[in-house]
Fold this sequence. Notes:
Layout: E1 23-30, H1 40-55, E2 58-67, H2 76-87, E3 93-96, H3 99-102, H4 107-120, E4 123-126, H5 136-169, E5 181-183, E6 194-196, H6 198-213, H7 217-226, H8 233-240, E7 248-249, E8 259-260, H9 269-284
Helix pairs in contact: 4-5, 6-7, 6-9
Amino acid sequence: MIDLNLFNSFAPTDKTAKRSGKNVVIYTRVSDASQEENTSLESQKKYCEAWAERKGFRIVEYFGGTYESAKTDDRKEFNKMLSYIKRSKKVNCILVYSYDRFSRSGIKGATIANDLFQDYNIMTLAVSQEVDPSTPMGQLQQNMLFIFSQMDNEMRRDKTVTGMRELLRKGYCPYSIPKGYTNLHKGRAVDQNIVVNEDGKFIKKAFLWKANEGMRNVTIIQKLNNLGYKLNEKRLNEILKNPFYCGIIVSRMLPGEIIMGRHESLISHQLFLKVNEIVAEKCNHPVTHKKEDNNLPLKIFMKC
């Protein structure tokens, strides 16, 4: 009779055996910075800790604890956690409050969770949505929860975009207001009171210099710097082309639409159009440079 133990070295190793145990890491997150100060992060952590204690799991590390959008899985704390659990031989589970805390990228998030289980025998468990991803039915349920999280995210986004478009059509600014303005009713999407601030007074000078003196942008920037107001050429160019400063709102969310804003105008419509006629004319008639110059006889031969 042949001793089969002699063939042990030829048998493939069992990856799952290396991960047997009840060690978990906890991952918590909120979607944006405005939520970071509320109780959500602490609540997620508390529920995960209580679940782990009830089930007899041991917490070995915490990750997240900050805001990270789950629409993409390229997240700093999330990737830090993945690197840790792949390197560590003692982690058996990732614990989250719900699967949308782990990922809202749908099938991509499900793939990450499935790969972790297949390659490292690490399960992703949600304390508020208890399924067993180690079984085919549990894995299907987990995948569906990831897909529902993505669908919920897309529906929220669609609702938000629709609301922002309606606000734009009413003359409000639902996103960050341009430089030179302050909303005295900070945080309000409607009933805004957007007025020109101290920065706006310097920006108005830039419009006047461009319109009345045809001043070049570099000269305008230098003059503003001399007055103690810092501005780079790219930002100045964006400002001069933004009709918000003459009381008009345009947005990529409403292509082809022109809306009269409810905010204070910095300059008149006529002044804005005059400035942009000057800008357009200079773009159509660029400064030409002579290839040869008698004062610089080696110009075409020497390079820096």
